[in-house]
Design goal:
With 313 residues, the chain is mainly β. The protein has a single domain, classed as 6 Propeller (Neuraminidase), CATH 2.120.10.80. Helix content is 4%, strand content 43%. It contains 1 helix and 24 strands. The strands form 6 sheets. The chain has a 4-stranded antiparallel beta sheet with strand order 3-2-1-24, with no helix packed on it. The longest helix has 12 residues.
Length: 313
């Protein structure tokens, strides 16, 4: 009788990837992408947010990139700006299928260290360095084309991080140079409109280089550099209100220039300064982060998004 052990072994390997995410099949569930970074910066990794385990190769960016920003709808992930020319480029991937990025269009100007957030229809990019800018710009994710002016942040800054509910976008922290000041500022916008950002409240400390993600109700900001050390603090706000951030818990270790993505219940933080560690929290509770797995290799200044950002399923 012939042996089928090879078939069963292969099937077991595919099942071990979880949620039906075997090679050549559509990706299932809430998928998080981690892209670019300071080492081999064209790589895109993916994870299944509801599970745990190491990241898997998704494809490549068109251009090796770091210090850029990412946002997503339920179907597409966008990557914009960055420290490697041309830094005005926007690229996109279809999250449900693995493969390389495709050209989307251009930002209004080339920027690095900007932040990005999104609703199910619009992607919004804010701040950045070119030199320091307060510009907010937006695109319609389901189309392709160049970004349009949305309005301004409350202050020109870079090393901004952002997250969103289905209606509101938040922009956290940043660095003003000159005079070389780290900010604790939180601004908010209504994504479906245009206009200048409004003051929301303050982070617990003046910080840059953390990572931000959200459910439909809570926004998290984790890690970063406070001018003397890399911190492990996770803090949160209630997006529909205004007010200062509250302590949530701690990352496994202090880290900056990491990235984050989320689904309705989990926030996932990966990479940084440099690291390959992925860690997660349950957004609706408070508490310390738990190990999730590893990126395919260590890197920092990466960008991350998911097809369930802001709690959209």
């Amino acid at each position: 009788m012939p042996s089928y052990s090879g078939v069963w072994t292969l099937t077991a390997q595919y099942q071990a990837l979880g949620s039906g995410n075997w090679p050549g099949a559509p990706l299932q569930g809430n998928i998080g992408l981690f892209a670019g970074g300071t080492s081999n910066g064209n790589v895109i990794d993916y994870i299944t947010i509801a599970s745990a385990g190491n990241a898997t190769d998704f494809g490549d960016l068109l251009t090796a990139q770091s210090a850029f920003a990412s946002c997503a709808s339920t179907t597409r992930g966008l990557f914009g700006g960055g420290s490697n020319a041309p830094a005005n480029t926007i690229e996109f991937v279809t999250i449900a299928t693995t493969g390389n990025a495709t050209d989307f269009g251009d930002l209004i100007l080339g920027l690095e260290n900007l932040g990005a957030c999104s609703s199910t229809t619009r992607g919004v990019f804010g701040g950045g360095f070119s030199p320091t800018e307060n510009i907010i710009q937006y695109v319609t994710i389901a189309t392709t084309g160049n970004a349009l002016d949305f309005g301004d942040l409350s202050e020109a800054r870079y090393s901004v991080r952002a997250c969103a509910s289905p209606t509101r976008g938040l922009f956290f922290g940043g660095f003003v140079n000159p005079p070389g000041t780290r900010l604790n500022t939180i601004d908010f916008i209504t994504i479906a409109t245009t206009g200048n950002a409004t003051d929301f409240g303050d982070l617990l400390n003046n910080i840059t280089g953390g990572a931000s993600c959200s459910s439909s109700t809570r926004g998290l900001y984790a890690g970063g550099y406070n001018g003397s050390i890399e911190v492990n603090v996770i803090q949160y706000v209630t997006i529909a209100s205004t007010g200062n951030a509250t302590d949530f818990g701690d990352l496994i270790f202090g880290v900056s220039n990491l990235a984050a993505c989320s689904n309705a219940s989990r926030g996932v933080f990966g990479g940084g300064s440099p690291s390959n560690v992925i860690q997660f929290v349950t957004i609706a509770t408070t508490g310390n982060a738990t190990d999730f797995g590893d990126l395919t290799f260590s890197r920092d200044s990466i960008a991350s998004c998911s097809n369930s950002s802001g709690g959209v399923q």
